[in-house]
Backbone:
């Protein structure tokens, strides 16, 4: 019974000691008010004493470890277990707090090089050579050894200088010294040591001195320095007073035969918590209440005890790890080290091709970063001299490692299916290389990498290949043949052992789980999203090129899989939407009083002219002749100006979406790359201008599969979609020179056929193709448009060829306008370029001039005789303004929705539709081309913008309440 009571008392003392240590650490991390202020208080003195005692407890623990724990080679196994537990703790704390830094992760994975829990390392290092140390210490008398320790710890304490490099004690050297002190005590029978009055007096003085220093130093520091900078000078593990008190407590405990047995794992886990700042930081997690911190200290102590007990059980039963680590009691540390090196060398030779595969995947990952910057710079850092090579390797190394792991998982997936090493490896390289090259090409022309929405356009792959120069296809074919030859050779000459089925299946499952987790990356509160945010993933959706440079092409691709269309509007409700519908119904009635025509009786043509933007307008470019002289003359006599595009070098479908719906893509989440493929399929219904006409036709003299146009136009309600290969044939096929695309003249001739084949009003959406890249020497008149400026010959060549193409567009437009002027029914042409071509190296992609394209709205003679009118010059418009401008020019009545768009066009500065920001803090352009921020808008303008955003949210993300009202009806 006495023994049981003694064991319970010992256990209770150990638990209280653990709670004291944890409580002190948590208070220090929480840094409550009484520690921050320069005021003396009871809590401050109490904390100082608590802090001191916690260090004394750790000192006693380290001495006990050296005194009690047997030293042998199997302690390496215990360190491995502590390593694994620390990793699991890291994962658990992340799941609890949902945050960490990349430095925290490095600390968990590389604890020795990162000095993560040095006290554990120091303690185990001393125990590994315990037998040698015991024999060495036997050569010297016990008082002499203690005197040496006294000097080591006393001198830094007295002079406040770190003479021996032991710092504040949270390091491997201090732990090593205190554990070896325990080893020194194990050489003598402590319970039989003669302790006379002098020793008792010395021990009493040590204890009293330590307590006195702990209580008086805050006052002394405050009185002398005016702060508490030296208040805890002696409350460290290396303080002579702390070490002396630790020795006293240890000695008294042994003399009293308390027989406190320290569980190896509980002791090591306590040291782990004591020395690992990340654990303490996450346990605190913002708490400053002392009661909460005390409660957490108790919980952590219980967890330490339970984990220690579990590890001791596992250690006894699991001998596999000992075999793997070549651990044997009979081996010395030197012999084990030599055997381990030999074992590693043998396995490196055995698995050399697997290791080489990982190295090569790392190189490919590095290349995937490098090629995302066409000029090998890192402009997003704001330092022109910084290159992408340096930036990737030294700044984004963690993302480089992540991409390497993703590439490796792709290999494991392929290998799991095929089961042959060389075929899987080379096929993986080929897939990765093709993807990197494709990304690099798109970055070059479009300043953005390949996005998931584009990969889904499977039916367009054949047409994409048709745009690739023939020599590249031939090179690709030759490379494929060479790769097949390499595979055959390697499989025959360098066969590799096959992996068991269960490991192959495990590889497939793990790869699928990791890649499929990307569907949750952008969900708020998702584990994978929080992990990647903490890891350092920077999607930068508003600048996809920058995102690819920061994260690598593959990770940026995965970032764009999980799409959020719009952030939820906080004030969204049916009541709010109904109120908005009534508000603009009144406005529509006011507008319609002054208008006589109906849209449905007009023939409206929205003509998107591929890549049309006059190079003469760019300050970086000078042309010998104006390629758009006729269009400029038309612009001088009708509604015209400059349209602000959301794209540069691409983004055609987004311009179509905005012109047809009146909804700006800048209000969408930056994860939306293409509204046609990401927004339209998710909406039950999408209202477009063509729905106001009995007949509507879409014309595109090229393939109809790009941007899922066939499905989109059908959902938009177009009765016909004319494209190459459709049942509604493209006629009058004309090509200019060697240009592979059908000419704009072809587009206009087919449009005329549609106009003439229907006598009433109709809507036509015409998307041309003639001026699509590449810009080779297709035309005989390229020399008429010589380009000059600060650019290389290759760029001048592209601009000249592009300008020659524009000149043919200019002639085609002139002919078309002359033809519609002869038709006796009201026809209005809305002509606009969708974006600048991606051929200008000196144009800042974020500048306004990089987004300005030409537009005009022309009504034919018959329309002008029947109410159509030219509006005064509207210099800047966004694509969403065309509906309102068309209705006004044709003197047509409007729906409440179009009344809203009309008011926006008149009262609100032009929206910069390329400034994606979730609709938050939108950016505008005034009539002079100057940027206007949301904060600078008037109250009325802000309300207009917010009304539009609410409408857009309801139609694309919300419950589509507006379709249950008369918001879209023209009265």
Residues:
């Amino acid at each position: 019974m006495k023994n049981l009571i003694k064991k319970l008392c010992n256990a209770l003392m150990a638990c209280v000691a653990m709670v004291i240590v944890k409580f002190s650490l948590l208070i220090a991390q929480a840094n409550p008010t009484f520690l921050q202020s320069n005021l003396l208080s009871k809590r401050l003195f109490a904390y100082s004493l608590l802090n001191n005692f916690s260090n004394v407890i750790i000192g006693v623990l380290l001495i006990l470890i050296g005194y009690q724990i047997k030293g042998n080679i199997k302690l390496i196994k215990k360190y491995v277990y502590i390593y694994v537990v620390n990793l699991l703790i890291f994962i658990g704390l992340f799941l609890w707090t949902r945050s960490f830094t990349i430095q925290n992760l490095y600390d968990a994975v590389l604890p020795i090089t990162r000095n993560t829990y040095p006290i554990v390392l120091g303690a185990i290092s001393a125990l590994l050579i315990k037998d040698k140390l015991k024999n060495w210490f036997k050569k010297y008398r016990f008082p002499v050894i203690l005197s040496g320790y006294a000097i080591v710890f006393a001198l830094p304490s007295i002079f406040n200088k770190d003479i021996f490099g032991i710092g504040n004690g949270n390091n491997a050297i201090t732990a090593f010294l205190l554990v070896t002190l325990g080893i020194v005590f194990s050489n003598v029978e402590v319970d039989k040591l003669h302790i006379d009055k002098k020793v008792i007096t010395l021990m009493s003085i040590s204890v009293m001195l330590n307590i006195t220093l702990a209580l008086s130093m805050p006052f002394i520091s405050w009185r002398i320095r005016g702060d508490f900078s030296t208040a805890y000078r002696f409350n460290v593990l290396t303080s002579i007073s702390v070490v002396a008190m630790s020795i006293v407590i240890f000695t008294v405990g042994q003399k009293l035969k308390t027989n406190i047995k320290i569980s190896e794992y509980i002791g090591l886990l306590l040291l782990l918590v004591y020395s690992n700042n990340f654990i303490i930081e996450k346990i605190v997690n913002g708490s400053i209440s002392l009661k909460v911190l005390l409660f957490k200290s108790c919980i952590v102590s219980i967890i330490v005890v339970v984990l220690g007990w579990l590890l001791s059980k596992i250690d006894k039963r699991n001998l596999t790890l000992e075999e793997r680590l070549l651990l044997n009691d009979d081996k010395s540390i030197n012999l084990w080290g030599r055997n381990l090196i030999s074992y590693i060398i043998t396995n490196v030779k055995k698995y050399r091709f697997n290791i080489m595969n990982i190295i090569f995947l790392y190189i490919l990952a590095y290349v995937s970063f490098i090629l995302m910057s066409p000029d090998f710079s890192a402009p997003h850092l704001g330092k022109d001299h910084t290159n992408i090579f340096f930036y990737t390797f030294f700044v984004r190394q963690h993302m480089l490692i992540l991409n390497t792991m993703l590439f490796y998982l792709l290999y494991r997936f392929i290998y799991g299916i095929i089961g042959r090493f060389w075929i899987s490896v080379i096929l993986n390289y080929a897939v990765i290389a093709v993807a990197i090259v494709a990304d690099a090409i798109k970055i070059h022309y479009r300043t953005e990498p390949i996005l998931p929405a584009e990969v889904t356009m499977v039916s367009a792959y054949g047409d994409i290949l048709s745009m690739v120069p023939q020599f590249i296809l031939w090179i690709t074919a030759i490379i494929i043949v060479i790769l097949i030859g390499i595979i055959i050779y390697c499989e025959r000459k360098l066969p590799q052992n096959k992996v068991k089925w269960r490991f192959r299946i495990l590889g497939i499952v793990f790869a699928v789980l990791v890649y499929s987790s990307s569907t949750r990356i952008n969900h708020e509160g998702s584990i994978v999203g929080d992990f990647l945010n903490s890891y350092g993933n920077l999607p930068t959706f508003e600048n996809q090129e920058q995102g690819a440079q920061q994260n690598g092409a593959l990770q940026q691709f995965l970032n764009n899989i999980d799409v959020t269309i719009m952030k939820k509007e906080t004030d969204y409700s049916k009541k709010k939407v109904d109120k908005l519908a009534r508000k603009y119904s009144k406005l529509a009635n006011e507008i319609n009083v002054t208008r006589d025509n109906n849209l449905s009786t007009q023939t409206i043509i929205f003509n998107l002219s591929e890549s049309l933007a006059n190079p003469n307008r760019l300050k970086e470019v000078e042309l010998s002749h104006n390629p758009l002289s006729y269009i400029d003359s038309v612009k001088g006599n009708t509604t015209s100006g400059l349209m602000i595009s959301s794209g540069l070098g691409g983004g055609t479908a987004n311009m179509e979406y905005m012109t047809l719906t009146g909804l700006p893509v800048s209000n969408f989440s930056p994860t939306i790359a293409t509204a046609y493929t990401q927004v339209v399929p998710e909406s039950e219904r999408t209202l477009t201008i063509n729905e106001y006409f009995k007949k509507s036709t879409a014309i595109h003299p090229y393939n109809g599969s790009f941007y899922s146009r066939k499905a989109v136009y059908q959902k938009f309600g177009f009765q016909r979609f004319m494209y190459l290969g459709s049942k509604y044939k493209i006629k009058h096929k004309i090509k200019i020179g060697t240009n592979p695309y059908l000419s704009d003249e072809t587009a206009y001739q087919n449009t005329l056929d549609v106009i003439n084949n229907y006598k009433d009003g109709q809507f036509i959406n015409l998307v041309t193709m003639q001026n699509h890249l590449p810009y080779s020497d297709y035309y005989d008149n390229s020399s008429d448009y010589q380009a000059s400026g600060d650019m290389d010959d290759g760029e001048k060549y592209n601009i000249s060829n592009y300008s020659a193409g524009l000149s043919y567009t200019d002639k085609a437009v002139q002919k078309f306008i002359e033809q519609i002027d002869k038709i006796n029914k009201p026809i209005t042409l809305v002509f606009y370029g969708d974006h600048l071509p991606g051929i200008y190296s000196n144009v800042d992609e974020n500048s306004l001039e990089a987004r300005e394209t030409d537009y005009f709205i022309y009504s034919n003679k018959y329309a002008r005789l029947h109410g159509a009118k030219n509006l005064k010059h509207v210099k800047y418009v966004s694509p969403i303004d065309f509906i309102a401008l068309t209705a006004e020019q044709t003197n047509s009545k409007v729906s409440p929705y179009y009344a809203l768009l009309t008011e926006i066009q008149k009262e609100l500065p032009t929206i910069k539709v390329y400034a994606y920001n979730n609709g938050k803090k939108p950016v505008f352009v005034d009539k002079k081309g100057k940027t206007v921020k949301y904060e600078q808008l008037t109250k009325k303008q802000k309300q207009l913008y917010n009304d539009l955003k609410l409408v857009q949210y309801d139609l694309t993300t919300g419950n589509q309440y507006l379709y249950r009202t008369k918001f879209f009806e023209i009265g």
